[in-house]
Amino acid sequence: MFGASWLRADQTVQVGPGLAFSPATVTVSPGETVIWNFQAFHTSTSDTATGPEVWDSGILSTGTFSHTFQTPGTYPYYCQVHSFPGGTAMNGAVVVQGGVPTPTSTPIPATSTPVPPTSTPSESATPVAPGSPIPTLDGRGRILFVLALLAAGVTALSLSSRR
Predict the structure, then answer these.
(1) Is the Cβ–Cβ distance between 148 and 137 less than 8 Å?
(2) Which residues constitute the domain of residue 11?
(3) Tens digit of pLDDT for each residue in 64-74?
(4) Angstrom distance (rounded) from CA 149 to CA 163
């Protein structure tokens, strides 16, 4: 009676105005498309550069970008201009429903043996040898850099107003 295209439920996400994806989370089935409708300078970029569902709209201020999802799972994404992978500033997620069960966490029984804390990589100053390329900052580093610049500016204004 009706073709398979009638059953499709593609989803549209508004990108902006402001710093938001609306809705922030959409759910589709394999074979369905998410269409991002841009209203300001933003991107829609998958949190990961590898895997079954990877996309990057590039910076757009108008128009649309779309990606058709095939693999069940949850795929977080962000705006490269205003956030970073795993951030909370301008981030969203696409949930692709399917027959694959969602992994759940299993509680780990308590042990009497103390476990030393594990270290996680963090950004730190690394000396750069003359002639070496200058390292670039990821999204988190950019945000921290901007916050440091803002703090320095506020301090300078505060000191100059005391004179």
Answers:
(1) no
(2) 4-96
(3) 999 999 999 99
(4) 22
